[in-house]
Amino acid sequence: MGEGPVCHDSVYIGHESRRRDARPVDNYNFTDENIKNYIQTTYSAFPPYLSDTILDRLLGLYPDDPSLGSPYGTGNETFGLPVGWKRVASMTGDLTFDAQRRTWTQTAAQAGVQAYGYQFTQNRSTSTAELGVYHSSEIDFVYGQLNSSSEPASSILLSEMMVDYWVSFATSLDPNDGLGTSRPSWPQYTPENEVLLQLNGDNTAVIPDDYRKEAIEFLWDNADAFHR
């Protein structure tokens, strides 16, 4: 990706903030060895395989501390699941979504592409605490398809803003055309200003794109081994 041809059209790149992506690890027995085996068979089932050095470093970057796991911001709550669930969910979420989203956005920005990044953090009324802000949960917001009788006013407001951001981008390649609802300015993602727009009905704001920085850099530095 870093060496291939680049399309210089403007791009939108984003994802949700919290996912529960940990599939069963040996009947939920989250020992370090079982987690290593799970990561090996899921992300490196054929050569080049993950080395013990890489696997040990991975576990060090994602410690066995539920307050640091996914869904994020839920403290030590484990929702009745084994403690290791949130640990593995954080690993797999970063491997599948966050590391790739960040690297794609950085690569586009470094190539001079006008890029805009977002992180969707609004809980759905249809979600559960253990599921968090799940993959694809922003789609109904973008298309204005929320049920106003079941969703809070903050979600309806966020949907209106998102519709206008997306329409603005589709018609001008810039989410900030000044038309439609009043909404925060969405800054361009550049090598000098790596920021995301946090999309949340109670707090839509610009945030730095630096969460789990060391871990995500490690994942991308070893992308070939993880077959990303």
From TrEMBL:
Ribosomal protein in keyword set: no
Keywords on record: Hydrolase
Pfam families: COesterase (PF00135)
GO molecular function: carboxylic ester hydrolase activity
Domain Carboxylesterase type B: from-to ranges: 86-218
InterPro entries: AB_hydrolase_fold (IPR029058), AChE-related_enzymes (IPR050654), CarbesteraseB (IPR002018)
Family to which this protein belongs: Belongs to the type-B carboxylesterase/lipase family.
Protein name, as recorded: Alpha/beta-hydrolase
Species this protein is from: Armillaria solidipes
